[in-house]
Amino acid sequence: MAKLKYALLAGAAAVSCLMLGMASAGANDSVLKGAQDPNEWAVYGKDYANTRFSPLKSINTGNVSHLTLAYSFSLGSLRSNEATPLVIGDTMYVSTSWGPKYVYAIDAATGARKWTYEPEIPDDVLQYACCDVNNRGVAYADGKIFVGRLDGKLVALDAQSGKELWKADVIDYTQGAVITSPPLVVKDKVITGFGGGEYGVRGSLQAYDVNTGKQVWKTYTVPLKDEPNGDSWKGDSAEHGGGAAWLVGSYDPKTNTVFWGTSNPGPWNTAVRSTGNGDFGKLTNLYTASTLALDADSGKIKWWVQGTPADAWDFDGVNELVLADLKMDGETVPAMMKADRNGFFFVTNRETGKILSAEKFVPTTWAEKWDVATGRAVEDPDKRAGPGHPAKGACPNLIGGKNWQPMSYNPETGLVYIPSNNLCMDWSVSEPKYKRGVMYLGGEFPPVLPPGGYLGELMAWDPVKHEKKWGIKEDLPFNGGTLTTAGNLVFAGNLHGDFQAIDATDGKVLWQKNLGSGVGAGPITYSVGGKQYVAVVVGRTVSLAAFVGDVGTKMLNATPEGGAVFVFSVD
Fold this sequence. Notes:
The chain is mainly β. It has a single domain, classed as 8 Propeller (Methanol Dehydrogenase, Chain A). The chain is 4% helix and 36% strand. The strands form ten sheets. Strands 1-33-34-35-36 form a five-stranded mixed sheet, with no helix packed on it. Strand 11 and strand 12 form a beta hairpin. The chain is globular.
């Protein structure tokens, strides 16, 4: 935790957003150009700020009820298809699950295939992928497509032909370290992390040269005992301490800062790496379950915010960081927003690391509150499990108040649209032994049904007033990411395969279409030839269901496995 004490900014007022990266200092020009082009979707989160907001409004609340299928494209791969497609010019780039098994370039207006990349992925990757054989998309810059793979490789492809240009070895996947999310391109560097917190990897972020694939820098997210903050770990436990940066990063060109979240510490039994109870003192297990701010040129950590010190609930801190300038107490604040798995919505000054607010956005019992003055949660000791001390009814469940499915921020409504979960758990610990390539946990975590009679909710959250404006409750958790537009719309899918267009102001469902398999991916929108399209990838999760017992069975029974991209328009 950054060693500063902060007071909460109160008296929140209106919200405004300054489009980040308008000055190209520090940015990759091709990425910046694509992010600023309303017709394209050139970055996983639409822009460096991960807002997932599009200024397109040809499709709006007045005509979205006339949305019809323009085309669909089969991905040729079932199970956990979670990619956000990119659209550069008139070409869509979309990856599949299983490696990815394929990366396709297709005509964004017709679905006609232009090229296919089919890498050779080892047959044994599934056993080393904690939470499925997913791939969440690719990155683009300088005429190249960058792909992270389950076998620990990062490759660059020619965007015109699909030809492989270079391949870098990021991590040995057989230790339980896989790449499931797209990298971030900043200047002449491609930055990536990898997963593996459940396998006892030691997390890191690594940057590679855009043109050659040569490693430029590497920053470990878990310090060893002889390194700065290494004393936040018990003994030599940091060697298998997790802290993997497996989701996506954000970037602020003004300060040349990359922001990235880190996963849970390993193992789950806190007695191995900390005190085994709430009196953990300095044994907080840095920099796990945290947000890191790093210098983009060197990878040096500037500051950090640890959302869950000495994490005892598998509350990964990996969720995406959404950057916006918010109007708070009459001042414009350069903010960073995070709907953390631990159930708290954090608003932080992205230039200083000062935490401005941390408020519950879902039912949360493990802590009474998160104290911005001390930089720690005020925990309920009965909800922290340790040796001889099981915990009952800890909320949220380990899938989090929000999981990887992306939220979006609309500067016109001032609201964040969050695909949230509502599930609890019991927790007890056991003594784990590290074995390379095998899960390193030391915890039992049966799910517990929460109060309220619902397991998920798409909610509109005011990050300044710290309140929910509206919500759509779901009977299952782990529903799809969101897109929001200047047409005053929110698009999102759920595990039943229902893809919806929703009024961004009041939450009214204006259009709905069932797509045959559960949706986890975040939708996109783009324009080709003056016509706006909305696209989403479908293909429900599989492995994650095993973590949530009977609820998981219902998740699997909701729809069959699938794998396709559906594209809609208004004629």
